[in-house]
Each structure stands twice: as structure tokens, then as C-alpha cells.
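We treat protein structure as text, and this decision shapes the records that our systems exchange. Below, we set out a record of this kind in full and without editing:

***
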Amino acid sequence: MRFIAGLWRLAIAAMCFVGTYEAWSRPEFWTYFTFQAGFALGFVMLWAGAASILKGVEPPAWLKGCVTLYAVVTAVVAFVAMPPDDPAYVPQVLGLMTNTWLHRIAPIMAVVDFVLFDAHRRFQWHYMFSWLIYFPVYLAFVLVRAALFPTAGPAAGGSPYPYAFIDLNALGWAQFGVNCGKLAIGFLVLSLIVFVIDRILPSKPLLG
């Protein structure tokens, strides 16, 4: 079963790297939360997949839980908040748009991996909060970059804000703060859900 788990994880890593390959030629794409989170997921899944097959050292529970949380966030944002991708502009691999691999399929497979192949009851209660450190760091990165490079993209017209719901120029500080507060609550709720699922499931992997 460890070989199946390893191949599953390597497949997730491949999807993440396929989904982020555009950013290597267009660095402004790294401003997107989903590209950053997707690359992190790919790295951790590459590590976990190799460790499963070779009986090596697995990624720490905190790190595995963190990338799983942000995979869930990526999927929720993709399904709920983002408009459909235009196949005229988004590259395709094996008949599917790279954004579909990165934003939908890879996160769903990461959740399946977490439920079926991970050992559970390893998360400490404070992980729910320490996992969220990335969120304010990401927002600070976006704001600082926008101040330094106000026309650098990646959004249409050269806007440095990757998402309309954190576009400070369009929203103003008050609405920006409200939106960030809502996002923080959403992140915390999802973090709590990941933590609770880990506590409910048996300590040994369901498969393996």
C-alpha cells in the first residue's frame, strides 16, 4: 500500500508543477496565492511520495497539515470565488487546463491523501493557529509589492493585485480590512475542520 500512496502523492506533485509552470516564464504569476500554495503542496507531496516508496523520513505533521489546509482553501476559492477559466488563454495539458489541475484536481487528491494515507491524531491544538501565519504574510507581500511595483501585474491592465477582493486601490482601506477579516475567519474555520477531522480519524492510516 505504501507504493500506492507514494505514486498517488507523486501524481499530486506532478499536477502542482504542471499547474505552476507558467510562473517560471512569467514571474508576476507568483503573486497569486494559488500558485504559491500549489508549489508548496507539490514540494511536500514530492517529499512524501519519495518517502513512502523509499521508506524515508516523512514530512512533519505540521507541514503536511499546513499544505493540506491551503489545498482546501485553494479548492474553495476556485469553486466559489473565481470565475471560470478561459481556454483561449489558459494552457492545457492532457486535455485539461493547467488551472484545473492546480486549483481543483490536485487539492481534491490532497484531501483524499490526508484522509486515507496519513497517520492521524498527530496535530497539536495550536497548529490550527500557527498554520494561519502564511495568510498575513501573503497579504503583506501583496501590499508591499503593489506599493513598489504598482503596474507590474499580474491582473488585467497591469494591476498588482491578483484578486479583486484584496484590490486596495479599488476597495479602499475600510473594505479591504473587512474582506481580510472575512478571509481570516474562513481560513480559521477551515483550519478547525482539518484539525477536527484529524482527531476523529483513527491514528493509523485508513489504507496502509
The chain has a mean pLDDT of 90. The first helix runs from residue 2 to 20.
